[in-house]
Amino acid sequence: ARLDMPVCYSAVARDTVVLAEAHATTHGRDAAEVSAIARRVLEAHGGEPGNARASYGESDLVFHLLEGVDSTYFLCAAGAGDGKRLPFAFLEDARREFVLKHGLEVRSAEYLPPMALDAKFSSLMANKMLDFNSGKAGDALAKVRGELDEVKTVMLENIERVLERGDKIELLVESTARLQSDAAAFRSTTRRVARRMWWNNAKMFFISWCVCVVVLYLIGAQFCGWDLYLCSSKHHGGT
Predict the structure, then answer these.
(1) Quick check: is 177 in a domain?
(2) Quick one: 103 exposed, middle or buried, by C-beta within 10 A (0-12, 13-18, 19+)?
(3) At what angle do helices 85-108 and 137-224 cross, to 10 degrees?
(4) CA-CA-CA-CA dihedral for 16, 73, 47, 80, to nearest 10
(5) What is the chain's alpha carbon radius of gyration, rounded to the nearest angstrom?
(6) Handedness of CA 147, 148, 151, 156 (dihedral sign)
(7) Structural domains in the chain (count)
(8) CATH code, 75
(9) How far apart are CA 7 and CA 131, in angstroms?
(10) How far is CA 116 from CA 12, 24, 38, 111, 121, in A?
(11) Which residue, 142, 96, 87, is CA-closest to 121?
(12) Full-prediction pTM beyond 0.85?
């Protein structure tokens, strides 16, 4: 048997409880049979936590599964020869719509009975299957790729800003280190200059003192002789 459409079945579940499902026209498969296989797939996948994407083959059908948040799973069935790109693009789109429309409802509910959201979400999944199977999938895939490219661009811009900020911080650190080094060199130079000026002042004081002594001696020598004998107290006492 061959499928008329690549994606022939889709469902959303919480843990192993199917909340909504939709069927497209197929040949050789009963809708109840496909639904039963989908539930077995969910039970089998429940033993593989952390496996965000998985595919399970069943004769001419492959069931593709995508994990969501809050223990939700998105499942679709496609032909064995139809690859994985289209089914997973469909699941990504269905998951995005589900989170927007029913994410808060699922998160706030401790328990949801089987088919609790079938009336609200099954028709949306059916329409999406028609869009993907009728050739509009290319537009949807392009939309998904465009959104991924936008996210990638934003991430790259953020990385560039972080790197640029890191460069600026590195330059600031280098400038600070250079200023600290210059300040230390300036303090060292200032101390050397201060010591040199102190010695120069000491030398000038000593030289000035010596000059004063010599001048006073010369003045005294004119009146008292070179040995200052005439001005000594002993000489005056003798006269």
Answers:
(1) no
(2) middle
(3) 70
(4) 110
(5) 48
(6) negative
(7) 1
(8) 3.30.450.50
(9) 10
(10) 11, 20, 17, 10, 10
(11) 96
(12) no
How does pLDDT run along the chain (239 residues), one tens digit per residue? 334 568 999 999 999 999 999 998 654 678 899 999 999 999 988 756 566 899 999 888 899 999 998 889 999 999 888 889 989 999 999 999 999 999 999 999 889 999 999 999 999 999 999 888 887 655 555 566 566 667 767 777 777 776 766 666 777 777 777 878 877 887 888 788 778 888 888 888 889 889 888 888 888 777 777 776 667 655 555 54
Across 41-125, where does the E strand assignment appear? 53-58, 61-67, 72-79
Compute the Cα dihedral for 203, 209, 215, 218 and give only its sign: negative
Specify if 93 maps to a domain.
Answer: yes
Q: What is the 3-state secondary structure (H, E, C) of 171-201?
A: HHHHHHHHHHHHHHHHHHHHHHHHHHHHHHH
* 3-state SS assignment for residue 136: helix
Distance CA 125, CA 20 (A): 9
Question: How does DSSP classify residue 109?
Answer: -
Residue 26's SS3 state is coil
| Structural domain includes residue 85 | yes
Burial of 155 (0-12, 13-18, 19+ CB in 10 A): exposed
CA distance 66 to 126: 17
Quickly tell me which residue has 């223990």 as its tokens.
71
Domain carrying residue 59: 7-149
The first and second tokens of residue 95, run together, are 């998951």
Residue 115 falls inside a structural domain: yes
The SS3 of residue 119 is helix
